[in-house]
Target: Cytochrome P450
Amino acid sequence: MTTNGAPVLYTCTLLTLLPSIWILIRLLKKMPPYPPGPKAFPIIGNVLDMPRRDFGRNFAKMRDIHGDVMYLNVLGQPILVLGTYKAAYELLDKRSVTLSGRPNSVMVELADMSWFFVFKNYGPKWRRYRRAFHQSFHADACVQHQSVQLEATRRMLCRILESSQDLSAILDFTFASTLMQLVYGLEVTRPDDRYFAMVERIREVSEDIAVPGRYLVEAIPFLRYLPAWLPGMQFKRYALKAKSDIHMILDSLHHASVKAKEEGCAQDTVATKILESSTSLEDLSHNETQTMCRGVSASAYIAGVETTNAVTHAFVLLMALHPEIQLRAQEELDAVVGQNRLPDFTDRPHLPFINALVKEVLRFHIVLPLGVPHRTTSGEVYNGYFIPEGTIVCPNVWAMSRDPDEYSDSLSFKPERFLDRVGESKFPERDPIDFAFGFGRRICPGRHLADASLFITCASILHVYHIQPPIGEDGHRMKIEYEFSTESMLSHPKMYQFDIKPQSANAKRLILECMDAFLAKE
Model:
């Protein structure tokens, strides 16, 4: 007679698993809940809740419902949106050890753009790149760049006089040429210069692949393994072409920079400083040093030119919209700088309204409405809520800039909000520097250079030019509005054909004197 041992086996198995089941239940009971957020659907999660445009404003509306720390799940990817400066500071600054990662991107890998500082994940290699970047762009080092910035700005004033209808292109070229000289030691004098075209190609690709949701492969990663010739695989063909182009461009720029230094045509640049400082690093091979130099140099250009251009365009638009603010700034410049010279960096401590104006432009026009996303490298608990490892964390910088708890009349453009008040040692309202350049260990290392560029550009333009809305076909001033692009991660203000002319005959004389000085040098 055979005894069936199955019931005994099942009983033993159950008894063995009971402790594990009990422990799992206890752990689940103890695990804090996820932060509040919109209700998720099975499988797709919160895909339908994700804004398709105007990310900052739309997430700010959702914050009013779900709170300043909002949790979403998109196709299994946890996302956390931080709607106030306090929440961003508590998580991204105070807990930067575990919140300094970057989201993984298939397109970044396919285009082989992990060298780009902004895309690079936190770790030893990132820290090495950061140190290399920092040595050329910390506050004291940026003082050495002021002569290059000043010359580029004065050339800009001359170009505006020659062709004010091309103002947008002139502003773009000014910062591009400044960074080309500082980073590579290459003097780019014309927008059709081949080196300018090269770096613009890299910038276009980096901005394109950073747009969330643009490429299906980011949501369905296995598509990367399909052949590029298949229908619907345009993303892969695009990435492979970008990879080939960018490698060629990085090599060309690097060799041109080294050659310029060897021939004595350039002073110390970002590229040459990295090469010189890396010779003492015994753990770096020659190829690793060259790769780091190419990556950090190109990162310095890309990250700097796009954001600075957008803010400066916003400045011009806001001056045309607010003639009373423009006049007040010009009166301060006349009183401090006078009528017989152009402003320089030594004037900055004596121009409080110009400094307040720069801060208000930074606050009012947020270039990156959702900042640059971070990623958690381990689980975190914040205010009783659990934030899982691998969560993409987005600071809603646009919402912070419009927070009524931080700013009175937050929707209005008011530079005077940043003027010191009698008896107060700090700004009466939060300095936008606190959030405009990022958070924690991922804060923008080029912020000191950008701030200096914005100051000298705004001060120089306002000292000699008057900016007004364009004149329409009917002979009257056109009505213009503060509008900006909303489809991309980067926000660009709408530009018009502004009526920008010298304020006076004396102002025109100062510009012409600059022209003569530049012609004499050539």
Summary: The beta strands are 69-74, 77-82, 374-375, 380-382, 385-387, 392-395, 465-468, 499-502.
